[in-house]
Amino acid sequence: MSNTPIELKGSSFTLSVVHLHDANPEVIRQALE
After folding, report:
1. What pTM was estimated for this model as a whole?
2. Where are the alpha helices (DSSP H) in the chain?
């Protein structure tokens, strides 16, 4: 069951990144760098 929370966090993180990327792509680029 330890994989479940990790997957949920991964999905949440991905959704957050996509949302932020859609709003401020430059901010995400800087965060990735």
Report:
1. 0.28
2. 3-23, 25-32
